[in-house]
Design a protein that fits this description.
With 184 residues, the protein is an alpha/beta fold. It contains eight helices and five strands, in the order E-H-E-H-H-E-H-H-E-H-E-H-H. The protein has a single domain, classed as TIM Barrel, CATH 3.20.20.370. Strand 1 (2-7), helix 1 and strand 2 (28-32) form a beta-alpha-beta unit. It is globular. It starts with a strand and ends with a helix.
Length: 184
């Protein structure tokens, strides 16, 4: 199964998340928001140096499904270009912002930007609502083998929940791997 993280927020929280997953020998996929990368260029290196996947989650995280084709493409392209600038790669995946599954137009524009894989998810941790660690753990408990779970950097509740989430997954025989590994 894959834990995927919306890449935005305080870099100190990112470091804590990366430390926790490192201690649990888990791998994750961070889908970075371009404005976050621009403000924190070291974030991309931190993620990649930990052996984790890095992908594109638009430039500014708008309600992308409501955009016309050209502005939608520009959101994807601008983040892609920042990823290339910082890492030499556009990232393995694209994930649409503010939607669990990509629309046909989002798939088209992501493909036009060079992304053959758009990474949706089947489990939402709801950590972005800051519901508390127990609620986050309960939401992630719905994950099964092959699941892609959506989580968020930048939320202290995510940090508080993460050790328990990882312990719960391990107790159920589930290992968090990068999305690249999961989709092999």
């Amino acid at each position: 199964m894959a834990l995927t993280f919306h890449g935005a927020g305080d870099l100190a929280v990112t470091r804590q998340v990366l430390d926790i997953v490192g201690r649990h020998r888990a791998q994750i996929t961070v889908l970075a928001v371009g404005t976050w990368l621009a403000a924190h260029p070291d974030a991309a290196r931190m993620v990649r140096d930990g052996g984790h996947d890095l992908g594109n989650h638009t430039w500014s995280h708008p309600a992308l499904a409501g955009y016309a084709a050209e502005p939608m493409y520009a959101e994807i392209q601008r983040c892609r270009d920042k990823l290339v600038e910082l890492t030499g790669s556009p990232g393995a995946f694209f994930r649409q912002s503010q939607g669990q599954h990509a629309t046909g137009e989002e798939l088209t524009e992501a493909g036009r930007a060079g992304y053959s894989t758009v990474l949706s998810y089947d489990v939402d941790s709801l950590d972005w609502k800051d519901p508390g660690p127990a609620a986050i753990r309960a939401a992630v408990a719905k994950a099964t083998a092959g699941s892609v779970v959506s989580m968020h950097l930048g939320h202290p509740g995510t940090i508080a929940a993460l050790p328990g989430v990882l312990a719960d997954l391990a107790a159920r025989g589930l290992t968090p791997v990068t999305a690249t590994e999961l989709l092999k």
